[in-house]
Amino acid sequence: MLVFLTGLGTLVASIILKISSPDNINSIYGYRTKRSMKNQKLWDFAQKYSAKILIIVGILNILIGIALMFVTYSNEYYLFFELGWAVLSFLPVFVLTERRLIQIELYLTE
Q1: Which string of DSSP letters, residue by residue, matches 14-72?
Q2: What pLDDT digit, counting tens, does each position of 26-62 carry?
Q3: Could you give the CA distance from residue 96 to residue 101 in angstroms, rounded to a whole number?
Q4: Distance from chain centroid for Cα 99
Q5: The pTM is what?
Q6: Residue of 38, 1, 31, 34 whose CA lies nearest to 16
């Protein structure tokens, strides 16, 4: 159930980010890392790209959460599995976005 709820929250957040991504670099809202906040071009790209990846992660978590609803586990570690999955599922968002930002940054400095 936790994976499903995380997927729903992620999907809603990604749609909000996609629809109303922040125009200017700020430290409150949006995809905020040191690299994405270096300049306006990187900032704009990071907002759009991370929103796309978040949509994919949200949909996958919803599907996995639905599949897990049909499985009943009496194991005491099941909650830790779900919590771990919910947290680790955001790792691709950061890895893929930062990798792409590095490529763009290298292209801009050439």
Answers
A1: HHHHHHS--SS--SSSSS--TTTTSSHHHHHHHHHHHHHHHHHHHHHHHHHHHHHHT--
A2: 888 889 999 999 999 999 999 999 999 999 999 999 9
A3: 9
A4: 14
A5: 0.85
A6: 31
- Copy the structure tokens of residue 75: 């194991």
Distance CA 44, CA 30 (A): 10
**Cα distance between residue 32 and residue 21, in whole Å:** 12
Closest CA to 30 of 51, 6, 61, 56: 51
Place of tokens 């991370």: 50
Q: Which residue carries 């976005």 as its tokens?
A: 97
Structural tokens at position 12: 């809603």
